[in-house]
Amino acid sequence: MFRSTSKALLKLASRPSTRTVSSSSRSLSSPTPANLAANAKAAVVSPTPTVATSSLLKNTREDALWTPGLLWRDEEAVQVGAPPPDAPHLVEADLQPVEAGGRETTKMNMYSAIRDAMSITLRKDTQSMVFGEDVFFGGVFRCTMGLADEFGQERVFNTPLTEQGIAGFGIGLAAMGKTAVAELQFADYIFPAFDQIVNEAAKYRYRSGGMFNVGSLTFRSPCSAVGHGGLYHSQSPEAFFLQASGLKVVVPRSPIQAKGLLLAAIRDPNPVLFLEPKILYRSAVEQVPTGDYQLPLSSAEVLQEGTDLTIVSYGPPLYTIEGALHLLKNPTEDIQSLIPEDLRHLSVELIDLRTIAPYDIETVVKSVNKTGRCVVVHEASKTGGVGSELAAEVQERCFLRLEAPVGRITGWDTPFGLAYEKFYLPDQLRILDSIIETMRY
Predict the structure, then answer these.
(1) Which EC number(s) does UniProt give (predicted)?
(2) Would you say the pTM of this structure is higher than 0.70?
């Protein structure tokens, strides 16, 4: 069934064409993102979307301020576990011009948004410290650039190149009541610290019967493919931590998300592993609120509403999915014959999981019960991945509503090859092929 289509699609390479961009109106009582398909009003012809031109990114001040779930933290001091303010959400005054007292935004890429989050933490939490390999110098990706000059080398400092040492030191700091933000320079090298993270950090509160905890500990680590990283600098190890009860795992997709989720992670009363897709450090650019705000952990975001198919992902593949959906609606000449006409106007619901553990299964189940079909996309290997867990949960909770098996488009169960990086990653055509196969089941 459609195997000839599948093989043909997987042999082809996509090329630039046109797409439809949606716009919508909003009100304070209904803060719906402008890119929700259900509210589309106008069509604008533009090239195939990339990270630089993605409609998933917020390029205006108004869109940035309308970020769903955004929680303002205007207090002068905010420490781990601090309760939220009484009126933290968007109000009419926030939308006024900056000169009239409205909220300010500025253009940031993802690494500068992450740096901004750590700067706010160091300023508002006097017990906080940032440390790791090359952190004092700004780090390989410049996320800590200038923080040592601003806050002093007793609070922002280098450590020896030993991941288990960094993790153990962070656990000790957190156990003594400090707010510890530890950087492990590449997620590929997190495995020497695996025992410390899984057996010590994640279980600390449980094994002490709640008398002690290391909830003020956050591990930051660059992850995922960058285009030339090979087997030791391209891995996505998030699934290894799914069974580490007591540990939260977060993967942001953009600057606004990175800043808000990192501030929430640092202030969450549980240890958090914050994985930062390194390819997005400079390529993802948005207007980001300059003030202090948080975004909710363990809460998925519906980026696009739909009724026919649910696609769930996180991090960089979201932009690849956007390209695949564009190809579905506007197939290039070489694949037009392979895209059924009746699927070109498919209504797809796109979900960003954001928190990998514990993930927001309720949002996913609600969507799949509506659409009856689901595809999961991620860069990590297929076996034992996040997609495996999601597929099992969806099958268990939505069995009577499913019209097709849950599709999984992932990396391969091989080491991440340098010369074959493009073949390893889920691309637009693999995703497009899975969409057609799921809809034609």
Answers:
(1) 1.2.4.4
(2) yes
